[in-house]
Please model this.
Amino acid sequence: MNFTNFGRYVLLLKSVFRKPEKLKIYLKEIAKQMDYVGVGSVGLIAIISTFIGAVMTLQIAFQLVSDFIPKTIIGSVNRDSSILELSPTISAIVLAGKIGSAISSEIGSMRVTEQIDALEIMGINAPGYLILPKIISGITMVPMLVIISMFLSITGGYIGGSISGAVTPAEYLQGITTDFNPYTIVVALVKAFVFGFIITSVPAYEGFYVRGGALEVSMASTRAVVISCISILVCDYLVTQLLL
Amino acid sequence: MIEIKDIYKSFSGNDVLQGISGKFEEGVTNLIIGGSGSGKTTLLKCMVGLHQPDSGSVLYDGRDFTPMTYEQRIEIRKEIGMLFQGSALFDSMTVEENIMFPLNMFTEQTRSEKIDRINFCLERVNLAGKNKLFPAELSGGMKKRVGIARAISMNPKYLFCDEPNSGLDPKTSIVIDELIKELTEEYKTTTIVVTHDMNSVMGIGDYILFLHEGKKFWEGSNKEIAHTDIKELNDFVFASRFMKAAKDKF
Model:
């Protein structure tokens, strides 16, 4: 995203946050988007998080070969890694692929078939009507998905450790309950909020300014996912630097 | 009435519109005609505010649309109905929801009032009972008619149609043309149709503005169009063998 695009992105966001024509219709649309972004992604996030937690436990156990290090550390490392990094970032990257491409394709198709022009002609603020509900659903539902992901990732670690014998359930439970800093949850939720904004607004921008036909829509969709993923990683670093 | 004054528009140094002026009266079907790339769709988009002209003005019953703010334009846009070339129906919504959409956004009508209005509009375009169909289940001509129904649902003062006959068979084209003309006369709308279809030109062109390479070359009615000595216009009007043969015969 070069400076011209960034400027257009900011101007688009300015239009997105204009006063809605009719709040009731926007609320209905927000509920629909929350269902799609949130409820529709729970299964995917659950599978990914559980397996990542399980794999993390095995890998930490593999690396901790010294007898001087208690095995309880496996639980605490898995807990902090899941909360601070894996759950927010991996979830966001996966959601950027699933939701980001869908948002970009949907809005891009509406653009090339003149549906966005039709909204504008009717006197409806097209960016507001099409993008605002998606952004609100992103910044509310992604943190919720990340909370689910944290829980399942830690649970996945428990299951993986128990099945493989890498760590006993008692050691794992002791590890995840020792020296827990609740502030890590705050950091994770801030990240989730920022990522939720990125994975909805960037694809919406890419779709909104598509010109051409089906090929350009698919290219915009790919670009949206790539830019979203890079933005997530950059913001991940910035938020971590700022808050930790 | 809509009046355009000296409209200029260029894209990346390419002058698409060069000083177009014209007056479009209410209750008559106004046509903007011209070959592909002549600037007619750009002119239409400048008129409805989808493009901002580089200079010139668009007056809706004396109200200058061009310098208006976003909020001021909304008031005029509520008086505009538009039929798009590809119909531009919202494909996630049924026919009924498409027509109800502007009613939901801008009126405080009850659901039964809205349904009555939808049924009236659908009957008006001969699509009664098609409320629950999705756009994907409609033919091209039916989509255009739903587009018209949606455009008239808010009782517009100004009706714009961008190539309403494109992709339609000649018989369906005539049905759409006649429908546009009937609605214009019935509701006294200021109707502007962008087309390059000669059947439409001869059939419903009460006032015709001919564009060629971004300039206005001629204006008049369908009764006058066949009797001009403007080469560019004659090349356009009599481009087909059928029209040439018709001219030679009469």
In short: The two ends of chain A are 28 Å apart (CA to CA). Residues 21-243 of chain A form one domain. The mean pLDDT of chain A is 95.
